[in-house]
Request: fold
Amino acid sequence: MRKTLKVFLVLTLIALLASVPALAQPQSNQGTKVSHGGIKFGEDGTWGFTYILEHDEDGFVDEGDFIPFFKKNKDGPFNLVVTGPYIKDGQDVDTIIGSRLGVNYSPYVAKFHGDNRILGIRVTPINVDLGPVSLTLDGAYTFALIDREKEKHSGGNVLKPKTNDILLGAKADIADYVDLNLAVVRYEVANEAGAETPYTFYYNFAVEASTDIVPGLDLNGVYARYGQDEDWLYEVTAKYEAIPEALWLRAGHRNSEFKDGVNKVSVRGVSTDDKIAYVGDKKPLEKIYNRDSSINVGATYKFSYDVLNATLTADYDTTNPDVRGDLDDQIAISLNANALEFELYQKLSVLVPDEETVNDKRVIDDNTAMRLDYELDFRTPQYTLPVEFADVFAQARVNFDWDQNYIADNRYQTIASVHLGATADVWRLEGLHVGAIFAYDMPSDKDIIADPFKFALLGSYDAPNGIKFRVEYQNSEDYKDETKFVHQKPLNDRYDEIRHYNDSKFHGVRVTVGFPL
Reply:
């Protein structure tokens, strides 16, 4: 126990020393061979850093030199991992230096993009046992960025300075009943020229908690605060299993305040660029931000009768997530049924506009009437056809969508399709697959589409060496048409079910080859 605390105290001391204002902007010293303290750094030597704080007749100078030594080529290695203890008989920890540090402390303040270009050091995990409380600590110190624009033209060996930031994460398990997650980011912002201090420290933090103290009740909450502009967010959700494995009840409330939206630097860290930001994905922030001061309640009921299995879901929400600040009520009811491998999904949504609803904020034709949405998706089982030389299947599908009171009185679209596929060993090509989807498209406005009859063809082969080959052909311009129609959504999104891949939004031929690198 004492040894564990010593490790944590040593690392904390290192972090505090590294954060003093005397730290200068880091300089790049890649590709060179130098020696500091008997340690060889550079391209053919050791990764690491050195820090020098000079002393003159008046004492220590205001700024020192912090110089990282880091080999970063376009194809890697992206980081160096050293595993082992810092003290004799201490616990093993991973010390990571480089980029792609894998920081995932909190989606609200510190969750790096998987291909992040932030350079730093991370130490993880430090486990501390305090009886009924188990702690897992994780820390990172960042000192430079890879210049992404210059990286494209220089083989990736370009660093640019940044402020020296500290990130800490902690997870706690309290008596097996409460799970806590804490994340703290301390970052620097440069002041205007001539200011008393060259930069100012700001802190972002998030606390997440979950508990199941009451049997069947899951309670989750998050609170985050952003120091530079004193922005904040919170969300509380509860889910209760009223009837075991049959009926679930849920409720939630959230609110937030971001003066300049969720893209600004003080919220996301060092940049709004995903790959050099401390929050690499803003969707968790937007999910709360777009539902301003909202509440929601809902229920899910699962039941079975003979060969039928079904799930009925109902939700009531006081806000439409498309536009912040306009709290229109929303009601949604859905039924997902499965019988003898036939699947039927239906959903009805109702938007009840309030007196604040205006047409330039809501996609709605008449703001004195409700807006209705209905969707149906029917799918047959996948039938195996009696063919001896190949595995052949066929499957049918019908999609129907209808809306009322968007930008028109009502619209609908029906798409019926058949999917055929065959897999066989042809010559020495094992597992060669060919597929075809044939569809007939029937919108309420026939002029909105170019071709009612559509088809998408596919040839697919995975070689023994791991290289993958795909050849596709799609016959209609509609596959790439972004014109908005039913539910005010792009047409090409409606055709996800009648093409082989969701990203096949093109008209013509596409050849794709993937290498296992």
The chain is about 10% helix and 50% strand. The first strand starts at residue 33 and ends at 36. The CA atoms of residues 289 and 344 lie 34 Å apart. The chain has a mean pLDDT of 83.
